[in-house]
Every structure is written in structure tokens, then in C-alpha cells.
Design goal:
With about 260 residues, this protein is of the alpha/beta class. The chain contains 9 helices and 10 strands. The strands form 2 sheets. It has an 8-stranded mixed beta sheet, sandwiched between helices.
Length: about 260
């Protein structure tokens, strides 16, 4: 009998959401991950930012120079994993840390090895927790944000969907922080070049490198691989489980109805 194709979700969390939510929100996410795996038969690859932000919250050091960012990342990454490991252990799950640089995706041999490692971890029922290796990445070769990293991993694994969790409800036609007459976009059939050019590529959060532009750019990359993306608020109750139940929350990017797996 042929082995059944696994359903894989790649889920990305930004720095602002991780820092604002703290350990309680991490526990809530992992509770949902446990239910995704047990009830909905979905394997999860978790992509998280927050190492530099975690270190900055603990020590008062500069973070403008590249060397300062690298050092902060080295300090904050164990803090990040402590939060996830405690939450995973509480649900009887085990996580695995995977730190990546641009070369790990760009180079054929590295990319193949990465895929093999992630597939093996999923086969062992381990939750891979990915982050860019900012302690060694340089300004010239870094992804720039984990949004694009998550999209590249989704393509690598032929994921069923990419979920980008943030601290806003989803995509608006204008920046809600700057405009009052904004309109929420619940479904974006396709990311166009015109749309990307119209967005503010420099708009980032106070604690992270990404912004809504980087999330839509990641969705554009995923759509090239025929993977649909959801951009949604990650601190809403049961957001991931609502998606699994077919509820339409946040902004869905891609054709509807969503593709079905064989």
C-alpha cells in the first residue's frame, strides 16, 4: 500500500507577536499544534522570529551594528527555544531547533539536506522550529525576514498551506495606522506586481524586520508554487484550529476553493 501523503502546514510567527504574547501565548499556540496533529492529521513546521527581540528585552545593548545583532541573536535564541520547549513538553511533544542561512536554501546540496532533515523530523512526530541563523548571517545574504524564509520552506516541502501569524487581523487596502478609511481584504485571489509596488516596503515593526509588504511578498512566492497563504492575527483564540475547520479568518491569498490533497 502506498504511503499516504502528509498534510503539512508551515506556520510563521513574527517578533512583535512573540514578545507581546509571551509564554502564555506560546502555550496556546502549541496546544493548537497538538490538536492539529491529533485531530486534523496535520504536520506542522514552525518558523519563528524573536531571538534578537528576546535578548533586547533582557539586556540593554545596542542593536544597530551587524555584530550587535549577531551577538543579540546568539543570546536570545536559547530564550526563544526555552519558551517553545516548555510548551511542547506540556503537551507531550518534542521540538527540534533548525537554524538556517540563505545558503541552506540557495545551494542545491544544502537544500536537499534541509528537506531530508525536516521530513525525517516530521516522520518521527517532532515539531521542527526554524529561525534564520542571525548569529552568523550577514547583511548581504540574510533573508531579511522570516516571512520569505517560511514561504521558501513551504515550497521545499510542498506544504498544503502557509500561515503567517501577525499582530493585525490581516491585509488592509491602506495602512490602518496611518489612515482611518481603510477596508479589510478577506480574500486576495492573486498577488500582482502592481500591488507589491503600491505597498510600503520600508514599513516594519518596532521589534522585527518584517512588515505587511514582506508578508504579501512571501505569499507571492508561495503562490508560484501553488501554495495558498493565510495572513491572520495570531493572538485570537483557536485561530489555527478555525482554519483547520474551514472557517474563513484573516486574509486568504490564492484561488478559492483551496486546493485539495490526494
Amino acid at each position: 500500500m502506498a504511503k499516504k501523503t502528509k498534510r503539512i502546514w508551515v506556520i510563521k510567527v513574527g517578533s512583535a507577536l512573540f514578545i507581546e504574547g509571551g509564554p502564555l501565548l506560546v502555550r496556546e499556540w502549541i496546544r493548537q499544534v497538538a490538536d492539529l496533529k491529533k485531530i486534523h492529521q496535520v504536520d506542522v513546521v514552525w518558523v519563528t522570529s524573536g531571538a534578537i527581540a528576546s535578548a533586547r528585552a533582557r539586556i540593554d545593548r545596542g542593536w544597530k551594528k551587524l555584530t550587535e545583532k549577531q551577538a543579540l541573536s546568539a543570546i536570545g535564541q536559547p530564550m526563544l527555544m526555552d519558551a517553545y520547549n516548555l510548551a511542547l513538553q506540556a503537551k507531550g511533544l518534542l521540538g527540534a531547533q533548525v537554524l538556517l542561512t540563505y545558503d541552506d536554501i540557495a545551494r542545491t546540496t544544502h537544500r536537499k539536506n534541509l528537506k531530508n532533515t525536516l521530513v525525517q523530523l516530521l516522520n518521527w512526530n517532532i515539531v521542527p522550529i526554524l529561525n534564520e541563523n542571525d548569529a552568523v548571517a550577514t547583511e548581504e545574504i540574510q533573508f531579511g525576514d522570516n516571512d520569505l524564509l517560511s514561504a521558501k520552506v513551504a515550497k521545499l516541502l510542498n506544504a498544503e498551506r502557509l500561515v503567517i501569524m501577525t499582530n493585525v487581523d490581516g491585509l488592509f487596502d491602506k495602512n490602518p495606522d496611518k489612515h482611518k478609511d481603510t477596508q479589510f481584504i478577506s480574500h486576495l485571489p492573486k498577488v500582482t506586481t502592481k500591488l507589491l509596488k503600491s505597498m510600503d516596503a520600508k514599513a516594519v515593526s518596532a521589534v522585527g524586520r518584517g512588515g505587511m509588504y514582506s508578508k504579501v511578498r512571501a505569499a507571492a512566492y508561495a503562490q508560484q508554487a501553488h501554495i495558498n497563504t493565510w495572513i491572520l492575527r495570531g493572538d485570537r483564540p483557536d485561530s489555527l484550529l478555525k482554519l483547520a475547520r474551514g472557517e474563513h479568518i484573516g486574509t486568504a491569498v490564492g484561488p478559492l476553493p483551496m486546493r485539495k490533497r490526494k
